C-alpha cells in the first residue's frame, strides 16, 4: 500500500476510550464508510496478544476499503502481522532504525515538533510527518503545542507530505489553510462523535476545502 498525499487527507487514529460498548471494528468501519483515507491503530494499554488480534482484524477491514493501515509505535507487531507500516514518535525509535527493520516497502510516519526533527526524520527514511499539537488537545497528556509558523516552516523544509494533528475539529480546520499540509490526523473529532460516519464525511469535506485554499 502506497503513501501518497491523497491517502493522508483524513487520517484517523483509534482510541478505545470512546468505544462506549461498541467494538473497535464497528467504529473504524463507520469511519471508513464516512471517507477516512488512512487508519492508525493506537493502543497504549492492550496486552500484546489482544493488540495483535485487533491489528489483524483492522488490517483486513482497511484492505476492503483500500486504505493504508499502520501501527502506532509497536514495530514488532507491525512486522508480525504485516501492517502497511508504523508511526513512531521522537522518543520511540529513529526512522532509520525502523526502516532497517521494516524494509524498503513499508510506510513510516514520524511525529515532529521542530524543523530540525522534521528534516532529520526525512533524511532517515520517513514517508510522512505528523506535526502537532496544532491546537490544545486532551488526547495526549504530554502534547507540545506547535505554532502555525513552525508548521508552515516544517512543510517548507521537507519534500515528504506533512499532516497536522492535535485538537483539530471541523470548526477549526480552516485555520490551517496555507500552512502547506496535505491533510489532518484526528482522534476524538471522529471517534468521540455520536455519528462517526457523518463526522468523518463533514470533516473530510472541510479538510478538502482547507487544503485547496
From TrEMBL:
Q: Quote the EC number.
A: 2.5.1.3
Cofactor(s) of this protein = Mg(2+)
- Keyword Transferase belongs to the record: yes
- Which family is it part of? Belongs to the thiamine-phosphate synthase family.
Q: What is this protein called?
A: Thiamine-phosphate synthase
Which CDD domains has this protein been placed in? TMP_TenI
Catalyzed reactions per annotation: 4-methyl-5-(2-phosphooxyethyl)-thiazole + 4-amino-2-methyl-5-(diphosphooxymethyl)pyrimidine + H(+) = thiamine phosphate + diphosphate; 2-[(2R,5Z)-2-carboxy-4-methylthiazol-5(2H)-ylidene]ethyl phosphate + 4-amino-2-methyl-5-(diphosphooxymethyl)pyrimidine + 2 H(+) = thiamine phosphate + CO2 + diphosphate; 2-(2-carboxy-4-methylthiazol-5-yl)ethyl phosphate + 4-amino-2-methyl-5-(diphosphooxymethyl)pyrimidine + 2 H(+) = thiamine phosphate + CO2 + diphosphate
The residue ranges of the Thiamine phosphate synthase/TenI domain are 10-190
Ligand binding (Mg(2+))? 73, 92
What is one GO biological process annotated to this record?
A: thiamine diphosphate biosynthetic process
The record's listing under InterPro entries reads: Aldolase_TIM (IPR013785), ThiamineP_synth_sf (IPR036206), ThiamineP_synth_TenI (IPR022998), TMP_synthase (IPR034291)
Positions bound to 2-[(2R,5Z)-2-carboxy-4-methylthiazol-5(2H)-ylidene]ethyl phosphate: 137-139, 167, 187-188
Task: Relay the cofactor remark from the entry.
Answer: Binds 1 Mg(2+) ion per subunit.
**Which keywords does the record carry?**
Magnesium, Metal-binding, Thiamine biosynthesis, Transferase
Gene name in the database record:
thiE
Q: In which pathway does it act?
A: Cofactor biosynthesis; thiamine diphosphate biosynthesis; thiamine phosphate from 4-amino-2-methyl-5-diphosphomethylpyrimidine and 4-methyl-5-(2-phosphoethyl)-thiazole: step 1/1
The entry's function note states: Condenses 4-methyl-5-(beta-hydroxyethyl)thiazole monophosphate (THZ-P) and 2-methyl-4-amino-5-hydroxymethyl pyrimidine pyrophosphate (HMP-PP) to form thiamine monophosphate (TMP).
Q: Which GO terms describe its cellular component?
A: cytoplasm
- The enzyme class is transferase
Domain of life per record: Bacteria
Query: Sorted alphabetically, which NCBIfam families does this protein's record hold?
Result: thiE (TIGR00693)
Q: Which residues form the signal peptide?
A: none
One GO MF term on file is: magnesium ion binding
Q: State where 4-amino-2-methyl-5-(diphosphooxymethyl)pyrimidine binds.
A: 40-44, 72, 111, 140
Amino acid at each position: 500500500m502506497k503513501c501518497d498525499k491523497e491517502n493522508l487527507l483524513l487520517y484517523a487514529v483509534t482510541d478505545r476510550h470512546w468505544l462506549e460498548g461498541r467494538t473497535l471494528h464497528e467504529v473504524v468501519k463507520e469511519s471508513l464508510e464516512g471517507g477516512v483515507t488512512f487508519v492508525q491503530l493506537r493502543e497504549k494499554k492492550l496486552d500484546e496478544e489482544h493488540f495483535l488480534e485487533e491489528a489483524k482484524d483492522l488490517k483486513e477491514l482497511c484492505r476492503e476499503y483500500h486504505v493504508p493501515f499502520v501501527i502506532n509505535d509497536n514495530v514488532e507487531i507491525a512486522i508480525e502481522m504485516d501492517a502497511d507500516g508504523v508511526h513512531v514518535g521522537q522518543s520511540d525509535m529513529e526512522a532509520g532504525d525502523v526502516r532497517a527493520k521494516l524494509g524498503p516497502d513499508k510506510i513510516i510516519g514520524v511525529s515532529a515538533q521542530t524543523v530540525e526533527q522534521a528534516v532529520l526524520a526525512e533524511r532517515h527514511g520517513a514517508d510522512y510527518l505528523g506535526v502537532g499539537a496544532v491546537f490544545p488537545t486532551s488526547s495526549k497528556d504530554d502534547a507540545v503545542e506547535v505554532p502555525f509558523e513552525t508548521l508552515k516552516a516544517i512543510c517548507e523544509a521537507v519534500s515528504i507530505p506533512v499532516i497536522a494533528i492535535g485538537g483539530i475539529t471541523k470548526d477549526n480546520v480552516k485555520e490551517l489553510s496555507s500552512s502547506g499540509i496535505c491533510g489532518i490526523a484526528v482522534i476524538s473529532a471522529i471517534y468521540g462523535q455520536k455519528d462517526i460516519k457523518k463526522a468523518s464525511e463533514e470533516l473530510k469535506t472541510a479538510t478538502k476545502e482547507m487544503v485547496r485554499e
